[in-house]
Amino acid sequence: MTNEQLDQLSINTIRTLSMDAVQQAKSGHPGTPMALAPLVYTIWNRVMRFDPQDPIWPNRDRFVLSNGHASMLLWSVLHLTGTRAVNADYERLGQPSVSLDDIRHFRQLDSKAPGHPEYHWVSGVETTTGPLGQGVATSVGMAIAEKWLANRYNRPAFEIFDYDIYAVCGDGCMMEGVASEAASLAGHLGLDNLCWVYDNNHITIEGNTRLAFTEDIAARFLGYGWNVLRIGDANDIDRIEHALGIFRETNGRPTFIILDSHIGYGSPHKQDRPEAHGEPLGDEEIRLTKRSYGWPEDAKFLVPDGVREHFAAGVGTRGAEARRHWTELFTAYRAKHPELATEIDLMQRRELPAGWDHNLPVFPADPKGVAGREASGKVLNVLAQNIPWFLGGSADLGPSNKTTLTYEGAGDFQADSPGGKNLHFGIREHAMAATVNGLSLSKLRAFGATFFIFSDYARPAIRLSALMELPTIFIFTHEAMGDGEDGPTHQPVEQLVSLRAMPGLVTLRPADANEVVDAFRYVMQLRHQPAVLALSRQPLPTLDRSKYASARGVAQGAYVLADSPGARPEVILIASGSEVSLVVQAHETLRAEGIRSRVVSMPSWEIFDHQTQEYRDSVLAPGVKARVAVEQASTLGWERYVGTSGRVIGMNTFGASAPLKELQRKFGFEPDQVVAAAKDLLGRT
Ligand SMILES: Cc1ncc(C[n+]2csc(CCOP(=O)(O)OP(=O)(O)O)c2C)c(N)n1
Ligand SMILES: [Mg+2]
Fold it and tell me: Which atom of ligand 1 lies nearest, measured to the CA of 134?
């Protein structure tokens, strides 16, 4: 067989595997894999530097399938390239990442060919996709990461990092706002290591894009400052290869390739029709389509002889050679630059350098206190100096979030200063969170920041952080009514409980400056969980830790901060964040009146819930039924800790525009009101 024939055979193998898998599953998306098989084939087998034997080799090119519904493209190519599996400890397992049996069980329980690409479940998947727009936005973070890594670690004659990022996307991705935010940022930063290929098939679920999407997308990307290319025929693999070559030679701009394609290519009755998007073709149509490809009509899940070998000769050989060369280079680099090499090693395993927590601040007792955001700013500046690959930024609220890294040499990340550690995301919260995911997928330790209320704008990407088990950090300040006069548009209410509801995400709402320090101490040691820090705008009294318990209790999620001497408490007062100090005042009042209360500071439900029953009972003594929870947020969920006979002082409306003091009075966040609730529960009014 000629090479051209093998190319075609390989492409048709991707197509027919996709059709067969969707048919077998009786669900899935056949049309786009049929159309994009030549594209994905070309990227993988002709261009990408990816070694199927080691899918986590640090300098590999990245491939992102942003139109995640076309997952059969990825399962086919991971199978045909013989990509090997890697486990969560980064060990190579030797077995295939995706077997033919997995493809036969496409979309079935435990199959390594699930409905959409899932990072952490299938080796070779660089990021989880499915929510349209997320993949391309995440790819911008990957591209920023590569620029940053190259700047820090490359040395003359040592190009340790020089990889590229390829993302494939469709109409849906292009319509989603997050993609626009991300494209705008990528254009501004001139990320010439980033290439998006847009599947211009004019079809989405409801029909032709004439229905809702008629803009001039080329003009749009030119406006963003991208290099825009067009390929009129998705089957022309030489043109595709040529365009990808232009991308690799383009400096100073990301590349956007518009690829005109036909969804359901080759299907006599479904090509160019919306039904090809998300329905099995049907047995008869599959036969007709296979006939049009010159394929045996009744063969199922067929991988003809020569196809695996063709991939082995293409990406297999090129990837192995690239990795071998890199490994030798890195060995020499390690000899010459041992400290830098060690950093790269640590980073790959998501470990922290020795001394990462040196010089973390300790805040003295102070009734006037320090704002949560202020304490956080001090901690961030220490951490960023201790951990070279710790970086991040805000969505234009740096001065307000106090996230700016101000120490000498921190610098701004820009096209002409790719070593900067202050990222300026602009007012693009959603793309910021997706970018932070991309940075984290590239093994950098990254944070993003905005006001807590606007976490809603970032939420879909935070959810993917949790789903992907990434140790990202989101710093959300102005976490309650502290911005008083800004009013209800800026006062979070339901954000806290909604983030607590997200599996795997750790939320922390520290009570004072020392709790902020210990919250970071906890968060930094996470390797597979994202964290949200909800921090106050206004100063919170720094508690006297010689009188009250140590802030180290943060690591247990909740701890007894203050207790009554002698017998068991009569009432337990539980609070988080800014309400802790007010509950402490209530406790002192109750104590003066001879009522034994206990104060529990509860910065994190999730962490507390993971402690032993014994510990939890030592904090929330089961015999004490009189309990009051105080938190400037939705009351939903607090019953879990106060029980059916407890009381919750929280928010059930949207707050209001007024000075903080007045809001605290109006909504019940005053010591007297806590005292009254406690006494009421005890029948001591
Ligand atoms: C954020 C988001 N909204 C909606 C969907 C549901 N959905 C999946 S695919 C799709 C249509 C996508 O059209 P296009 O990107 O053009 O894909 P094609 O059919 O051309 O492959 C929609 C609406 C989704 N996955 N993510
Ligand atoms: Mg489309």
Answer: 1
Write the pLDDT tens digit of every residue in 462-476: 999 999 999 999 999
Average pLDDT estimate for 421-442: 98
**Mutation test of ligand 1: which of 27, 40, 69 has the most ligand atoms closer than 8 Å to its C-beta?**
69
DSSP string, 613-651: HHHHHHHS-TT--EEEEEEEEE-TTTHHHH-TT-EEEEE
Atom of ligand 1 nearest to the CA of 32: 21
- Cα 98 to its chain centre, rounded Å, is 24
- How far lies 17's CA from each of 28, 273, 303, 431, in Å? 12, 20, 8, 34
At residue 239, the pLDDT reads 98
CA distance 312 to 305: 13
Residues 231-245: tens digit of each pLDDT: 999 999 999 999 999
pLDDT tens by residue, 322-335: 999 999 999 999 99
Q: What is the mean pLDDT of the chain?
A: 97
Condensed to tens digits (0 to 9), the pLDDT of residues 513-555 reads 999 999 999 999 999 999 999 999 999 999 999 999 999 999 9
Q: Which residues line ligand 1 (CB under 6 A)?
A: 32, 67, 69-70, 130-132, 170-173, 176, 199, 201, 203-205, 263, 277
Report every protein residue that has its C-beta within 5 angstroms of ion ligand 2: 170-171, 201, 203
pLDDT in tens, 290-306: 999 999 999 999 999 99
Compute the half-sphere exposure of residue 448: CA atoms within 13 Å on the CB side of its CA: 30
CA gap 322, 364 in Å, rounded: 54
C-alpha 204/C-alpha 206 separation (Å) is 6
Q: Give distance in angstroms: CA of 204 to centre of ligand 2.
A: 5
CA of 583 to the centre of ligand 1 (A): 49
- Nearest listed ligand to the Cα of residue 170: 1
Ligand 1 atom 16: residue of nearest CA: 171
Are the beta carbons of 274 and 207 closer than 8 angstroms? yes
**Alpha carbon of 169 to ligand 2 centroid (Å):** 9
Confidence band, pLDDT 50/70/90 cuts, at residue 402: very high
Of 27, 181, 199, 205, the residue with max ligand 1 atoms within 8 A of its CB, to mutate for a pocket test, comes to 205
Cα(261) to ligand 2 centroid in Å equals 9
Q: What is the pLDDT of residue 88?
A: 82
Look at residue 565 in the predicted model and tell me its pLDDT.
Answer: 86
Fill in the DSSP letter of residue 596. Answer: -
Q: Which amino acid is at 565?
A: P
Atom of ligand 1 nearest to the CA of 172: 15
pTM: 0.98
Catalogue the E-assigned strands of 498-581.
Answer: 506-508, 531-535, 539-542, 559-562, 571-575
Q: Find, among 385, 419, 346, the residue nearest to 145 by Cα.
A: 419
Closest ligand to Cα 168: 1
Residue 417: strand pairing partners: 414
- What is the whole-number distance in angstroms between the Cα of residue 198 and the centre of ligand 2? 9
Is 494 in the active site?
Answer: no
Burial call 17-29: b when 16+ CB within 10 Å, e when fewer: bbbbbbbbbeebb
What's the chain's length in residues?
Answer: 685
CA nearest ligand 1 atom 18, residue: 204
Q: How far is the CA of 259 from the centre of ligand 1 (A)?
A: 17
> Of 429, 570, 606, 631, which is the active-site residue?
429
Residue 483 has pLDDT above 90, yes or no: no
CA nearest to 35, candidates 177, 248, 200: 200
pLDDT 10s digits, 243-277: 999 999 999 999 999 999 999 999 999 999 999 99
